[in-house]
Amino acid sequence: MLSALPRGSPEDGYLRLNWSALREASLVHLFSGLDLEYDPPPRCGEVTGFISGYTEWVSREEPSISLGWDWRLDVETGLPQLAVASVRSNVMLVDDEQADLGVSITMHLLNKRLQLLDWEATVAAALGMRRYG
């Protein structure tokens, strides 16, 4: 059971946690997929500029943390890498006095939390990608 704080508007949709609770939460892979739309779409015989996708992870504990982000395939390693340093989530981090840290700091720390996951290999395996190089 996560020690979430029932602070803030119930309509805002945020699960309020401190950094320690987020860091220690057990996150598991829910699903991943490939982006099927290209801008612009490649023409016959053209190599796509990149392969990209998305992934969603959730906590094992209740209430459920949800983290999702976009990735691009790293052509050097054959593994997905974070495409944009912005995570979609239902989490708002709070300080020791249980005041919201705000969107910017929360996003920074959510991105830091991703560094604690072995998400790249998990996403690659889920999509049947093989390492090369």
How would you describe what is shown here?
This protein has 133 residues and is an alpha+beta fold. The protein has 3 helices and 7 strands. The protein has helices at 19-24, 103-114, 119-126; strands spanning 15-17, 27-34, 52-59, 66-73, 80-82, 88-89, 91-93. The strands form 2 sheets. Strands 2, 3, 4, 5 and 6 form a 5-stranded antiparallel beta sheet that branches. The longest helix is centred in the C-terminal third of the chain and has 12 residues, at 103-114. The mean pLDDT is 86.
How are the elements arranged and paired?
Elements (H helix, E strand, L loop, with lengths): L14 E3 L1 H6 L2 E8 L17 E8 L6 E8 L6 E3 L5 E2 L1 E3 L9 H12 L4 H8 L7
Parallel strand pairs: 1-7
Antiparallel strand pairs: 2-3, 3-4, 4-5, 4-6
- Cα-atom radius of gyration: 17 Å
Element-by-element helix/strand order: EHEEEEEEHH
State the end-to-end CA separation: 42 Å
Number of helices: 3
Please bin the fraction of helical residues: 10-25%
Q: What is the strand tally?
A: 7
Looking at how many chains there are and whether they match, the oligomeric state comes to single chain
Q: What best-fitting shape do the alpha-carbon axes yield?
A: elongated
The biggest beta sheet, please?
5 strands, antiparallel
Low confidence ranges:
none
Average of per-residue pLDDT values: 86
Class by SSE composition: alpha+beta
> Which percent band covers the strand fraction?
25-35%
